[in-house]
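Page 42, continued from yesterday. The earlier attempt failed because a stray header line got pasted into the input along with the sequence. Redoing it now with the clean sequence only.
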Amino acid sequence: MTEPAPLLPSPEERLTRYGRLRDRVLRDQEWGPALRWLAPLVVTALAAVLRLIDIARPRELAFDETYYVKDAWSLWTLGYEGTWGEDANAAFVTGQNLPLSDVGSFIVHPPLGKWLIALGMSIGGPDNSGGWRLATALLGAGSVLLVYLIARHLSGSLVVATVAGTLLAIDGLSIVMSRVALLDGILTFFVLLGVLFILFDRRRTIPLLERRDPEAPDPFWGPVLWRRPWLIAAGVALGAASAVKWSGLYVLAGFGLYVVVTDALARRRAGVVLWPSSAAFRQGPVSFVLLVFPALAVYLISWTGWLVTAGGYDRQSDPNPLIALWKYHEAMLGFHVGLSRGHPYASAAWEWPLLLRPTAVWVDSDPAACGADNCIAVISAVPNPLIWYGGVAAAVYLLYRLVRGWITRQSIGAELSIPLVGLAVTYLPWLLFPDRTIFQFYTVVMMPFLVLALAMTLRIIAGKRQDPLPRRLAGERTVLVFLVFVVLVSAFFLPLWMGMSVPYDFWMIHNWMPGWV
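This time it went through. Structure tokens are written below.
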């Protein structure tokens, strides 16, 4: 008897033209390895060009650069944040007679981000606006590379990783926050670095925890693992994030909990009898030491300038410098809790998903630049709307998939959980402070996780190899059309992200909502 014909052709026969070309290139002994290196290099180079070209514009302090640039130069000069006199902003344009005194100033953010800004200023001097922004631009391009690496780790796909990295590379919010000397772009880099190290730890540790050994000395509790270098590295990175802005602490706590939960689930799969207690009360304290202690060490080291000098704010409040530092932190906490001053660009956290009030970090009328009387130059930290709203929709979809997986007890991969955990720890804490003055541009640290969620969802839309060919073709074409429109929208908004002088009417057609003006 002859075997019946299969209902569907084999997956290899049903590959689309794109799929066949992709597989042929990746399997080629010459092009495959080269492409694996070339893709991240090209994506990172694109990000670097968009962040570094004409970075000195505007040649004046923009938005909160008035705080961080001056604090950075003070750190470089005094070792701590001093007090600035009148007309300090204008003095930074000329670089002459900077009115800096050695009287300590009350500053409400840790110093690491400002030290990094100061490194760029040390190259060009205090009057070089490109030097102010060099660190944020380089770390912004580095964030794109980190997103590529995270997506590659989560998906195992060169294409998905390239899409994720490219989306972040051409997103307006990420571009703008890499082109101004604010702290949030630096925070984003260290958060992503910590997440990547967490993933490396999972890849190394989970197989050890899942190993079923009938001769194990303690099958009720399972092993306790101390040798976890990537977890220590994650603590260093997330400690650096916390030393840039305190919101890094939420990321440290959230991903620390993620480590404990994934440890517990791995022990359950290995057949450990007391897997919840083992993960929480035996491995949990060890993981805490490996993650939190390095973070604390990095945070304290970032305050070295304040600790070894005598002029910093509150430095003389106690003979013990660590107690004095604690008192200073109590004052900083009081400021953050009570901050409720109005601001024209303030945006409550509940508004962020709707993108109701993006921040214009610089506005200047420059009629001579385009030969007309109605020109305007703006740097608007509005993200690419397609990436933003698409990312929000993708996150909601992944959350649905996660909940459905829990209900049906299906295996839930890191490609679903990591973007959602990242969004939870970078967004949900801000909802606890509805009256605090906060801004839409804080979401720059959310943007990589929205991009990851979007890339993973686009992969689902594109379809699997075993899907019927019409389904696969429709999915791939849908994804391709979406990505083409994303690129076109980024090109449309690029003048507003780079502060180019444009006709007033051209600027107005970019304001898709009343709050974007």
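Notes: Residues 264 and 276 are 6 Å apart (CA to CA).
Reminder to self: strip header lines before submitting.
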